[in-house]
Amino acid sequence: MSMIKRMNNLPKNILNYFATFTETRFNFRKLINYHWTNDELTLDLSLFSDFQKSFFEKIKLGKLLKMTVKKGQYVISITPEKINSKIAKQLSQKFNLKYLQNCVSQAKEKINGTNDKLIASKDGIIKKSTDEQVDKGKDGTIFLEGIRTYNLAFRKILGEIILEVQEDKLNQIKEELQVEYLPSTIFNPHAYTQECFDSLQQLAKKSDDENNYYEKIQQYFKKETKEIIIYDLFFNLQKYTAFTNIGTQYLFINELYKDSNDDKESVSYP
After folding, report:
1. In the chain, N or C: fewer CB atoms in 10 Å?
2. CA 129 – CA 115 distance, rounded (Å)
């Protein structure tokens, strides 16, 4: 009876085998040498350990009919503390109060220099002192222009800090997972730094002087620095919808790799 049952299943097994053969394009002469392509086209789901655990648990229980992934459900992020420590260092060193005051002083010299007036008198042409021209409204303009110069310079260094902490996090992930490639992050550093810049500009409008503004920016970064989400499984999967018309998409959970003892590069396979 057992032999008959196996014989009855033989056609089905053969069909399944050749369906797999056709789908993966394997042939008996040569196997396709699968490699990771590049950061845009690969997503190693072992990045998301909680998802991977749930995925394998459903397979184990035979319940893997459907898995729903929601925005913010599976994320990898950088904590504000990682960023704030580097920001605080910059505020206490290069971007200290003295640097801020110098920016305002330079703005005053620049604005006053362009507003000098030449006055004709019996003694000839003389230049009127700009100190006589400065009024309260102009003082406010000078202050805001100086703060803007400071904020522009700080935005640049903030961008460098963000890229540095992101690179540190990516290297940490590679080390923990022992992988060579990672997908592109979903984080937009330009949008992050621009949002900070806009907030600092608003703080400047509510500040009385350089000392008051300097205190406010220190408090701002302590309280308002946001975490950086570099990976969100929802958005990372969503990015692959652009490739649906190209061909079959495959889901890989882990990576196999071998280190080469000679000068050749290491080889990895999904």
Report:
1. N
2. 10
Q: Which helix (H) or strand (E) holds 229?
A: strand 228-232
In total, the chain counts a number of residues equal to 270
Identify the three-state secondary structure at position 231. Answer: strand
Domain ranges of the chain: 2-269
> Shortest CA distance to 226 belongs to which of 160, 158, 173, 153?
158
Alpha-carbon distance 82 to 227, whole Å? Answer: 9
Q: Is 148 within 8 Å of 106 (Cβ atoms)?
A: no
Q: Give 228's strand partners.
A: 78
| Helix/strand/coil for 244 | coil
Helices (H), the chain: 2-24, 49-61, 80-92, 97-114, 136-177, 189-205, 210-224, 233-238
For each of the chain's 270 residues, which pLDDT tens digit applies? Answer: 444 444 455 455 544 544 444 444 444 444 445 455 555 566 777 788 888 888 888 888 887 677 788 999 999 999 999 999 999 999 999 999 999 999 999 998 888 765 555 444 444 444 454 444 445 556 778 999 999 999 999 999 999 999 999 999 999 998 988 877 788 889 999 999 999 999 999 999 999 999 999 999 999 999 999 899 999 999 888 877 777 676 666 666 666 666 666 555 666 655
